[in-house]
Specification:
10 helices; 3 domains; 415 residues; 60s Ribosomal Protein L30, Chain: A; four-stranded mixed beta sheet; six-stranded parallel beta sheet; single chain
Length: 415
């Protein structure tokens, strides 16, 4: 293979000037003592010249030599002089292939380097080469688990990712000086009056307008467990939101501690099980119907069900303080536990036979209701003892889950 700087297109074959002094016509040869002229093939040929006069190759740093006339690779030639302080020879880059011969194992040249500026159009030979494969800027096929995500750039908005099991934490209102973490605001006459009369509810602050305080005194005569604070309606709108129908009254309180399933089984009445009912207004309306028909408790799923909020309490219209609200991790296992306690579990679905209250006069019943859109899940349906439906006559095929719960509770109360 030819030397790296041979056959420079459009110019002479002279190497860059920082690799050694150029030799003009008649100059000394750069080959070591005892070496003959560089031949171009078997039998000898004209030596490589650095100009029109045909000088020899310049001195400087050693390079990879080509093959000799007999085809054997030449020895690696050590440098004989330091680089001169001169500028490079301008010219186009060599377009030939890179030398792929064996690397020299000897020491690098440690002589003084040239202080002249380099030109970008001249090839560099003093930088170390990478022996292994070149790493790509971005892996083409890297799995998601092989590397951690890059941190956001400076000034960029951070990404917000919410895991599915923590979704409910972001649905709850954020903590503020007016609503500390772990508390909730109850609003509306019935919800606030029932909470003030509940000894198991821990109360913190009571905000009322002048008109709302007079109406609350008629519904629940004082003294109350917490002293009222007189505010205007604009203050409550800012605190709760302008779309909230607070009726001029708000109560800051802690959530109720849920009872155990065993304590609920000791009570009489129908047990209501909600399988992923997600709307808090539906849950509140079901609790209101449960209190009206003497149900024992309402059981919801821990993950896919709303938290205890002011909207749920207002829809329940005071029933949240009277009907225990339990949260179960697994609805199917809860139904199995109810069946073990001699409770007959009825899944409410339009495909079942008509529900008849007198048919269950001698049994304890648990009414299982599905979600608003999909109804009962397959595992929940298979775990129930029986599937029953409501007799509907008209153009409407189904009812809202809270309305269906009211009709079913009324039918079960006829036994």
């Amino acid at each position: 293979m030819k030397p790296p700087h041979s056959n420079r297109p459009g110019g002479s074959s002279r190497p860059p000037s920082d690799r050694g002094p150029a030799r003009g016509p008649g100059g000394p040869s750069s080959r070591p003592p005892g070496g003959g002229p560089r031949s171009g093939g078997p039998g000898g040929g004209p030596s490589r010249s650095s100009g029109p006069g045909g000088g020899a190759r310049s001195e400087g740093r050693s390079s990879y030599a080509g093959k000799s006339s007999d085809g054997a690779p030449r020895e690696y030639q050590k440098p004989y002089s330091a680089r001169p302080t001169s500028t490079r020879q301008d010219g186009p880059r060599p377009s030939g292939p890179r030398h792929e011969g064996p690397r020299p194992s000897g020491p690098r040249h440690e002589g003084p380097r040239s202080s002249a500026p380099r030109h970008d159009d001249a090839p560099r030979h003093d930088a170390p080469r990478h022996d292994g494969p070149r790493p790509s800027a971005k892996p083409a096929s890297a799995s998601r688990g092989d590397y951690a995500p890059r941190p956001p750039r400076e000034g960029a908005a951070p990404r917000l990712t919410v895991a599915p099991q923590r979704q409910r934490d972001y649905e709850a209102p954020r903590s503020s000086p007016d609503s500390p973490k772990g508390t909730l605001w109850l609003y509306g006459y019935h919800a606030v009056a029932a909470a003030l009369a509940n000894p198991n509810r821990r109360l913190r602050r009571l905000l009322v307008t002048e008109d709302a305080e007079a109406g609350l005194e008629k519904q629940l005569p004082p003294p109350w467990a917490v002293s009222p604070e007189r505010v205007d309606r604009a203050r409550l709108d800012t605190l709760l939101g302008r779309d909230i129908v607070h009726q001029g009254i708000a109560l800051l309180a802690d959530p109720l501690a849920p009872p155990s399933l065993q304590s609920v089984l000791e009570k009489t009445g129908v047990i209501i099980v909600l399988d992923q009912v997600t709307d808090p207004r539906n849950v509140g309306a079901i609790m209101r119907s449960a209190a009206a028909f003497g149900a024992a408790c309402v059981i919801t799923q821990d993950r896919n069900a709303p938290e205890e909020t002011g909207g749920l309490a207002k829809a329940a219209s005071g029933a949240l303080e009277k009907i225990p609200l339990l949260r179960a991790v697994n609805i199917a296992r809860t139904i199995i536990a109810l069946k073990a306690a001699n409770v007959w579990c009825i899944g409410l679905d339009a495909e079942g036979k008509a529900l008849s209250g007198p048919a269950f006069s001698d049994r304890r019943v648990a009414l299982v209701l599905g979600s608003e859109g999909e109804g009962l899940r397959r595992l929940t349906r298979e775990t129930c003892d029986e599937i029953a439906g409501l007799t509907i006559k008209g153009a409407i095929e189904s009812l809202n889950v809270s309305a269906a719960a009211s009709v079913a509770l009324y039918e079960l109360s006829r036994r």
